[in-house]
Amino acid sequence: MEAILQFLMNNIASGAIGHYISKGLGKIDKDLPALIEGNADISEIENIVSKKSLENDIMKLADEVKNKIKNANTGNVINFTGGTNEGIVANKVEIKTIKNNVTIAAPHGTIASSLMHRNYSKYLIDRYHEFKKADVGKDKMNYAVFYGAIKREFGAKWDMIPLERFSELSSFIQRRIDNTILGKNKKSNNVKRYSSIDEYTAKHG
Predict the structure, then answer these.
(1) Which domain holds residue 125?
(2) Whole-angstrom Cα distance, residue 53 to residue 122?
(3) How far apart are the C-alpha atoms of 90 and 74, rounded to whole Å?
(4) pLDDT 10s digits, 163-193
(5) CA 37 to each of CA 27, 43, 76, 136: distance values in angstroms, whole numbers, following the listed order
(6) Nearest 10 degrees: CA dihedral of 155, 148, 191, 198?
(7) pTM
(8) Which of 47, 74, 101 represents a domain boundary (last residue)?
(9) CA separation, residue 45 to residues 23, 119, 136, 139, 186 (Å)
(10) How many Cα atoms are found within 13 Å in the side-chain-facing hemisphere of 157?
(11) Under 8 Å CB-to-CB from 98, ≥6 apart: which residues?
(12) Phi-psi region of 155 (alpha: psi -120 to 50; beta: other; left: phi over 0)
């Protein structure tokens, strides 16, 4: 399931195919598009898929996407053999070098363009999920809600937010951590809830 989810994540930003994936995920479960587009951890998404028994629907969607990609690459092609000639007749022939991984540079000036800022932001998001899970329990945890809250607050996916608003994003997430039940308890007892970006960078480089 991890490989299938990774395949969908890799293709959701690809034009018409990406739109098809997003729409298909929404039909399976309304929370899935936000998780996939928000680059949530695979383990988080797997937990939701398993909990809601969505494995078959996800695999079916992945197969449909693979077929669409295949058809898009091989449409309008006729192979012929016989006599003194053999070859291919097509409206358009493209010869491509297939690569297993295609890396697209993050837009300049976004949090995603700075590895340090991206990693710290994701650390805070994961930290919030840990605290929230302690509040509501694993079975009631919905990871997509917080990704949606960030997008509503800042008007963009968490790692597509302008780098100049990084401090705002950090403060927003930290406040949300502090406002959980566990966060309030730790704060009242003067217990650390999260590392600062300087502490995080010193530890992780």
Answers:
(1) 111-204
(2) 27
(3) 9
(4) 999 999 999 999 999 999 999 999 999 999 9
(5) 15, 15, 32, 24
(6) -40
(7) 0.58
(8) 74
(9) 17, 19, 18, 13, 28
(10) 18
(11) none
(12) left
